[in-house]
Amino acid sequence: MHFYTILDLNYNIISLIDILGVIQGVILGSLLLFVHQSKRKSTLFLGLFILAYSLEFIPSILTDIKLVEYYPQLTYLPFDFIWLMFPLFYKYVRHISVFPEKSNYIYLYPGILSFIFQLIIFFFPLEIQTTIYESIPYLLFSLLGILYSIWIAIKTVQWINLHIGEVHNQFSKTEKRELQWAKLFVIIGLLFIISSIFAAFFKESFWVALLFSLVNVALLYWVSLRGILQKNISPLFQNVVSSSTTITATSQLSNNKKTSNFTPEKGEVQEKESLEKQELLVKKVTDYIILNKLYIKEDLTIVEVAKAVKKHPKTVSSAINKVRNVNFNTYINTFRIEKAKELLLSPIAQNLSIEGISNEVGFNSKSAFYAAFKKIVGTTPTLYQKQNS
Q: Bridge partners of 171?
């Protein structure tokens, strides 16, 4: 009897942690829905995601505190959002990313239909609910939901990687724009799902249950906080993100138009001229940046540079990528690092700290400066200073 009391108390501790997660999730999710504006749909999807995430705790809470023993009708609450959570987060990421988002809700439909199905079944007699939820078809349906979540999670990571690449092509300051936290959250979420699947094959342990509960609540709090603080990243210029079929169709159409006039020799001349024009453009951009010391500007964008040389930002970005084989962010950082190397070896370094020098050359943080310096020079600013003094 004493052992049972201790075990019951332990599970109440887990339930208390889960209840705190539900409270914070419902409050934050509801607030986001309340302040939602039509121009910021990302707030809507984040709020719905947080609500879905937090409500998933409720069935396990009711089981742990043994409330379902007194109210069996609460056994199968319609709060299984395995089909819906990752798609909601995917839509949130799409809306805050640098790429323009189209109103496409197709990935949410399976989750919405799953919720409607659960809601209908919830009003059936308990015996019928048990028969349905313990049937092999429903188990296969749940497994399919897990696979669907994993697929959407992978798509989210791929989209964030595309976003990061474009951010580096448009901005010189990428901090708080890269969405690395969202990428990390999705990866941890994937690992959490896989771990949960493996844990289901073993006897439930109190410590394992406690660990899962703590991680779940911590993730909910973390993603809520980061999501609320994260601002939408507006594109500086429009980028067309086409599907592979659209790209293929466009290229085929283009090839058909050019086939009659195209010869290998003519193609080589055109490519050479194009490369020469790009090299001249990059030289013009480089001279302008150095002359006006634009690299010192902390939040320099490619639009400002393109406007100065009277070219479209996409044209400038493509030229830099082609001629220098780097993105805009790295391109600007090379100027900053060259100036930093000069300052590190000058008498000015006696009166300035490493952080002071990083601010002088246009970096907004010491960590960003160190990362860029190590990437371009191959060593840290401090070691470079010692080796060349």
A: 301
Q: Which residues, at least 6 apart from 188, have a Cβ–Cβ distance to it below 8 Å?
A: 219
Sign of the dihedral through C-alpha 359, 363, 367, 372: negative
- R_g (Cα) of the chain, nearest Å: 27
CA distance 186 to 159: 12
- Residues 5, 320: Cα–Cα separation, whole Å: 69
CATH of the domain at 387: 1.10.10.60
Give the residue from 381, 343, 388 showing the smallest Cα distance to 361. Answer: 343
pLDDT-derived band at 267 (thresholds 50, 70, 90) equals very low
Residue 83 has pLDDT above 90, yes or no: yes
Can you give the pTM of this predicted structure? 0.83
Q: What is the mean pLDDT of residues 301-330?
A: 92
C-alpha 342/C-alpha 294 separation (Å) is 17
- The alpha carbon of residue 176 and the mean position of all alpha carbons in its chain are separated, in whole angstroms, by 11
Domain of residue 375: give its range: 329-389
DSSP 3-state of 285: helix
pLDDT at residue number 39: 57
CB neighbour list of residue 372: distance below 8 Å, 6 or more residues apart? 330, 333, 336, 337, 363
50-74 per-position pLDDT tens digit: 999 999 999 988 888 888 888 899 9
User: Are the CB atoms for 348 and 359 separated by under 8 Å?
Assistant: no
CATH number, domain with residue 213: 1.20.1070
